[in-house]
């Protein structure tokens, strides 16, 4: 049996399970207080809808089904694949929205979202995400907010009921994301054990170098609804 210490999948699984446990114990009152103190207000600049500011829009399974109904060609395997087996096949925890050549979201037009009422979960809660990070003393705790001082205005007055609604929706998203990640890690673990596979960082690095040079295509297994969908990508096709 491979020990957790020497198995990156099991190591990450332990970490994510602990993260979910910690998230569930994070006090609602503390989160609501952070939201109220910051007082974020959107200024409709659309910066958050570009790669320059947010890299990519990760889709939960519930988002994926809705987006595929709107435009099945709008999705692509999420970047930053988590694992690569010794045969050069990559594994990633879900899909993301495609972007246009200028880096803006495929659904952004004239700085407005074409699917605003049906937008993905992460777009609905942004920028009120929770992140584990260290403070100035080195203590690691849940902190929030994303994209500070990059867009929007702050110190606006937000009533308590709105802050509570934001906190509840954000917590629901964060929990769903971690549950999906746990499902992905468990599925990869089963697949690797069943097929005598393992993550090989050297193979990962070599394949990515070749891919970014346009010298090969990638075979990517995307976690979706409890299983994997295989996608083949050429460099630039994820836009």
Automatic annotation (TrEMBL):
Q: Which InterPro entries match?
A: Puta_zinc/iron-chelating_dom (IPR005358)
Superkingdom of origin: Archaea
Q: What name goes with this protein? A: Fe-S-cluster oxidoreductase
Task: State the organism of origin.
Answer: Methanosarcina lacustris Z-7289
The beginning of the lineage is: Archaea, Methanobacteriati, Methanobacteriota, Stenosarchaea group, Methanomicrobia
């Amino acid at each position: 049996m491979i020990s957790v210490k020497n198995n990156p999948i099991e190591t990450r699984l332990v970490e994510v399970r602990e993260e979910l446990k910690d998230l569930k114990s994070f006090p609602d009152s503390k989160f609501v207080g952070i939201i109220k103190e910051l007082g974020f207000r959107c200024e409709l600049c659309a910066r958050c809808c570009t790669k320059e500011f947010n890299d990519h829009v990760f889709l939960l399974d519930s988002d994926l089904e809705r987006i595929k109904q709107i435009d099945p060609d709008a999705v692509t395997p999420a970047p930053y694949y988590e694992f690569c087996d010794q045969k050069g096949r990559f594994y990633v925890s879900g899909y993301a929205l495609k972007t246009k050549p200028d880096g803006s979201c495929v659904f952004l037009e004239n700085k407005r979202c074409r699917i605003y009422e049906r937008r993905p979960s992460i777009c609905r809660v942004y920028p009120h995400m929770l992140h584990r990070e260290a403070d100035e003393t080195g203590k690691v705790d849940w902190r929030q907010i994303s994209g500070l001082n990059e867009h929007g205005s702050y110190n606006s007055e937000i009533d308590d009921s709105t802050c509570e609604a934001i906190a509840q929706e954000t917590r629901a998203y964060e929990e769903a994301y971690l549950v999906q990640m746990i499902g992905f890690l468990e599925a990869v673990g089963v697949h690797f054990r069943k097929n005598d596979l393992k993550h090989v960082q050297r193979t990962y690095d070599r394949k990515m170098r070749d891919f970014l040079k346009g010298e090969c295509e990638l075979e990517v297994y995307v976690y979706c609804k409890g299983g994997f969908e295989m996608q083949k990508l050429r460099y630039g096709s994820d836009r």
